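In the lab's daily routine, each protein ends up as an entry in a very long ledger. A line of letters takes care of the sequence, but it says nothing directly about the fold. The three-dimensional part falls to structure tokens, numbers that each stand for a local backbone shape. The outcome of that step, for a single protein, is printed below.
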Amino acid sequence: MTEPDSAGSAGTLSTYGADARVSASVPDAILRYSAHARGFAELRLPQGRGDFPLAVIFHGGCWKAGIADTAYMAPLATRWQAQGIATLNVDYREVGDGGGWPGSFEDWDSAAHLIDRVASEYAVDRGRVTLVGHSAGALPALWLATSQDSGGPVSARTATKVRAGIVLDGPGDIGREARDFDALCEFSSVSPFVGADGQEIDNRLAVISPFRKAPQLEQVLFVQAKLPSPSADVIAAIAADGAQVDVLSNPGASHFAIVTPGAPVYERLEPAMLAVLRGTE
């Protein structure tokens, strides 16, 4: 059964203006996947009978504690809730509060088990689940759908069974795109997150690269703004297990406008996102 969290466990950091036009609704439930303070996800359910598609949302924040949490993705989760999409807005540890390698991966892996729980307890269509990641949240959105051997950050794991992934201004391969991502963060983010130096950095980045294992997805949609579109070889690596990969580039758009309901650029992009979430395209 669902387990309520303690007061104040929902996101409390900046919304980065994402709530300028849509205020976050109160979650229908706060589900715990771990005992630590950030081991929770906010569940929002649409009105009606269902069964509803489910978007599992991972916030960004350059994997550094204190920058971002679920607060700024809650308006988007609320907007999708109004459009008939159930949402699970996941918090997780980052560098500085127990996250990084392997802590963040442990959290993402544990949070993924909530998908089956939600599908069994609520009117959610288990066959229409999409992993959604903004900025640094792109990594769990792709990594969770990837199988790993014993050399991975949480040792061996099977890919989480989901239909699709949506990357919102995030990297497709953090090793190959580290320079661009660090520039977006305006500080060194990748190296502290990986938690190694020298050759071990390259080894760890290789383990989680789509060139090692492609995500097992039917469809991947990249919606880029500040970050460049993934290179052709990164797209080919992500598509290697049969995924249809599409890229929508939005030069000049801000990093947060594309996740701000009501912003003009978001309004242009929403139909494409909803088509993926609903499994209609």
Notes: Residues 46-278 form a domain with the Rossmann fold fold (CATH 3.40.50.1820).
